[in-house]
Amino acid sequence: MRRSLFSASCFSLLSVFVSASALTTLPLKSRDCTCSSAGATRESFLLQILTNSPEYGIFEVAPSTGPLTVGIIGAGAAGLYAAMILESLGIDYEVLESSQRIGGRIFTYRFDEATWKKSKPGEPGYYNYYDVGAMRFPGMPWMHRVIGGEYRLYNNRLLYNQDAPTADAFDVETSDGGPIRNDDKLATTAAGVVLDEALQDLIDVFSTSGFDAGFDHLMQYDGVSLRQYLLSKNYTTQDVDWMETLTDATTHMDTYSLSQAVLEQWIFNSAPLDSWTAIEGGMDRLTHGMTQTLKNKPILGKRVTTLMGYPNKTVTVAISDGDLRTYAHIINTVPLGVMQNMDMSTLDLDYNKTFAIRKLQYDPAGKIGMTFKTRWWETPQGESNKGFQGGQSYSDLSIRRCVYPSYGLNTPNASAAMIASYTWGQDSARLGAYYHTDSDRAYIANVTIRQLAAMNNVTESFLHEQLVDMHLWDWYAHSDSAGAFAIFGPGEFSTVMPSLMKPGYLGRVHFAGEALSSRHAWIIGR
């Protein structure tokens, strides 16, 4: 349950990573991709879902009668990747994007865009940015991200990363007036370790008996939330609350299905933090590099309002500006909250598809980026502040966690931009309420400074004096996203996902994107 740092759209069923050379030197020079062992696992996982889940009837694929042109809706990672695949196959396509930028959930905000454009890697102005959405890749062996020390602040107790984050360390045992019994395992064992152990029996079936047996066994629990399962294992409500506080977002253990939690642990526990990678200069270099490889560039400002099926087996899309475009096939990659508002009534989609579009849960997420005069977090500010490079600090405060940049570390006087707050779930929904008016933004800036100072053992006055600029983003508040990432609730692996993995309207309308990945919230299925 380490859902930190979400990433962007994923293309359904295509479990490949962009090659290392494509990430380290952009724009991309090659469309070559390498298939990972995790990719093979994901492919097996997706096929098993379709095999073991309720059938929604067969679908017909009508033959093409003329030149094949595919309309791709959305210029996020999924849409761009689909375009790259089609181009490599010699299939004509168009990419329609409603906003005025490409990238979707890949969005890099630069506090001084003009200076950044004139800067080069290794120059101070090159690092004055933060990634609002996608920001890292886990578990890729060809690049090592610098991970430094972390602070953890819970119950007004500040611990450095080397100290075990136990209930005893944070004074939340019953003897201290807290909820965790003194003889509870959580009193002396880190919450993340206890959670891993609680799920290990389910994970072990995959390891010892193979994927089919593991998945079949897991589907017996698909209707159970993670909280329900932990309670059935004799953890108390207070135990589960404490594990959630230290390892995830508020209310996530109620909304997460057990299936999602176990599959996440099983597939990705092999990716230690020091193997995660980022793109120097911002993650949007990836999507801009992908775009530069395409013959047909995305057409911006084209919000699709309607998809219309016709007797000649073509699909016409209506654009909000009155434009009409007709295609042999459609690949719809937009988030389901956006898709839900498209008029698709003439496509005769079955109820299971429309239900899935409406039902599949999306989580809120938001970030507050701040840029300062100096990289104060890299220099000790007091005896107990050790200073560190890269990594995160966690807390039970409303800003929950801050993220220190792992770029520009060896550049003298590098710009000092950081993520002062990163939240998801209920934490994000509550904090995001203050992002939308000048007075609320001024208020939440002061709240962020106060809590950031407490998390990092510095004074509020020091941070106020250091602060240069701030940027806030709430993914649920923007019409092109209508949420941050999909999050499977109980039963949704078996009752929601399968229907969207089959095309609609005579096999002409295809659904893709992060919600249909075997692992939500990450680029190309994480």
Automatic annotation (TrEMBL):
One of its GO terms (molecular function) is L-amino-acid oxidase activity. Residues 1-22 form the signal peptide. GO terms for biological process: amino acid catabolic process. Pfam families: Amino_oxidase (PF01593). Residues 78-520 form the Amine oxidase domain. It comes from the Eukaryota. The keyword Disulfide bond does not apply. Keywords: Signal. InterPro entries: Amino_oxidase, FAD/NAD-bd_sf, Flavin_monoamine_oxidase. PANTHER family: AMINE OXIDASE, FLAVIN MONOAMINE OXIDASE. This is Putative bifunctional amine oxidase. It comes from Cyphellophora attinorum.
